[in-house]
Design a protein that fits this description.
269 residues, 13 strands, two-stranded antiparallel ribbon, 9-stranded mixed β-sheet, 2 domains, globular, alpha/beta, binds flavin-adenine dinucleotide, Rossmann fold
Length: 269
């Protein structure tokens, strides 16, 4: 495979959610003044791609769909070592749900290379949190999918991955091409070098709209989104509950706990 290997990484710009708050009156995210970052899981996906570049000389392309200023995350990826990047940006993409997002990204992938060896995604985006876009793209590309990847090796046209399961690790072998979603256990992402940043700042990042990727109007944006967000709200703050100290009078404390459970209908009177 060697020099001809081509991998594509989808990276999303997200608000730094440690700072995100919800407006209790409008139920919308308060994004003002909130820093935007590369989705942290996408850093791990990018690192896997860059390791394939280190080892096999793979070409690494990055794609993001978002507003014009989302080119920042692509430049960050270039600074770390990606070869080229494309920003999908068009008002026609606005309001996309996960299906419409998957379709738009798939059209861009097809334009970059109709047959890439691996398309990488983060496990999930930390704002949308659905973890649906990687699987959605694999379906549209009609390509195998491996999720929760924590280790990867490629020899010829065969890949071997370890996937991070709740109860252990699965080892999966398969043939390229494949779509993968990557977890944080995979690696420690590299930093960009100063010279990497200098090159990335000057890099030409094409901006593609719906027409550029031959996207059908009824498949993108609001028109292409069969699901709608009807409400967004912060979960109610949990109160501390009732504390009972049974050290002095254990029998009384036990009786009080039983009474409280009976009052709630958890145990019969
Ligand atoms: P996940 O599926 O959790 O992301 C997995 C991986 O996919 C990421 O790690 C990354 O590698 C890749 N990825 C995801 N999104 C992108 C991207 N844009 N570019 C590159 N790679 C990406 N958003 C709006 O801005 N306006 C709306 O009106 C709107 N309506 C929505 C309605 C519904 C019902 C839903 C569920 C979501 C809506 N969203 C909207 C959010 C938008 O659909 C999601 O941000 C987008 O589909 C990605 O889903 P996610 O964030 O859950 O990503």
């Amino acid at each position: 495979m060697g020099k001809d290997m081509h991998v594509i990484v989808c990276v999303k710009q997200v608000p730094d959610t440690t700072n995100v708050r919800i407006n209790p009156e409008t139920n919308t995210l308060m994004r003002e003044g909130v820093e935007s970052i590369m989705n942290p899981y996408d850093e791990f996906a990018l690192e896997e791609a860059l390791r394939l570049k280190d080892k096999h000389g793979a070409r690494v392309s990055v794609i993001s769909m978002g507003p014009p200023q989302a080119d920042v995350v692509l430049r960050e990826a270039l600074a770390r070592g990606a070869d080229d990047g494309v920003l999908l940006t068009d008002r026609a993409f606005a309001g996309a749900d996960t299906l419409a997002t998957s379709y738009a990204l798939t059209q861009a992938i097809r334009k970059i290379n109709p047959a890439p060896d691996i398309v990488f995604f983060g496990k999930q985006a930390i704002d949308g949190d659905t973890a649906q876009v990687g699987p959605g793209v694999s379906e549209l590309l009609n390509c195998s999918l491996v999720t929760y990847v924590q280790a990867l090796s490629v020899e010829g046209d065969t890949f071997t991955v370890e996937t991070h399961m709740d109860d252990g690790t699965d080892v999966i072998e398969g043939k390229l091409p494949v779509v993968m979603t990557v977890v944080k256990e995979a690696s420690t992402p590299r930093f960009a070098s100063l010279s990497g940043w200098m090159g990335a700042k000057q890099a030409d990042i094409p901006k593609w709209g719906a027409a550029d990727v031959r996207a059908e109007k009824e498949m993108i944006g609001l028109d292409g989104s069969p699901t709608k967000v009807v409400k967004i709200f912060a979960p109610p703050v949990k109160t501390g509950g009732v504390r009972m100290d049974g050290r002095a009078e254990p029998d009384a404390a036990v009786a009080a706990v039983v009474r409280a459970l009976q009052d709630k209908g958890v145990v019969k009177s």
